[in-house]
Design brief:
Layout lengths: L10 H26 L1 H14 L4 H8 L8 E4 L5 H9 L3 E4 L14
Parallel strand pairs: 1-2
Helix pairs in contact: 1-2, 2-3, 2-4
Amino acid sequence: MRRRMRYRPSRANCIFGGIVGIIFTCIGLFVAIPAAGAFGVLWTLIALAISATTNPLARRALEQLSALRGCEAHSTVILSRVDSETLNRLGMYVTCDPIYEEEDRKYHKN
């Protein structure tokens, strides 16, 4: 017979997880998104998902992802197929300038 076990993290684990989650979310918002565009959005979403298990603010942020549906986003470089599909799955309308991220690479690999 299997017993259901439930693990409840200690207060210290919750605080540490919350701090780490906030740090990685801030890195995503202020460093990764401006530098890497859609990858930064993906980074931030992953950071929120990981920290949502212990941080109620991250849980609330994940619940608000549906509010992004219908929003508009603009990228200053051409996005890869994966990045644009991620933003499209969120329901965002994406535009981008016809500038390649790397000058010597004029295409995106599939």
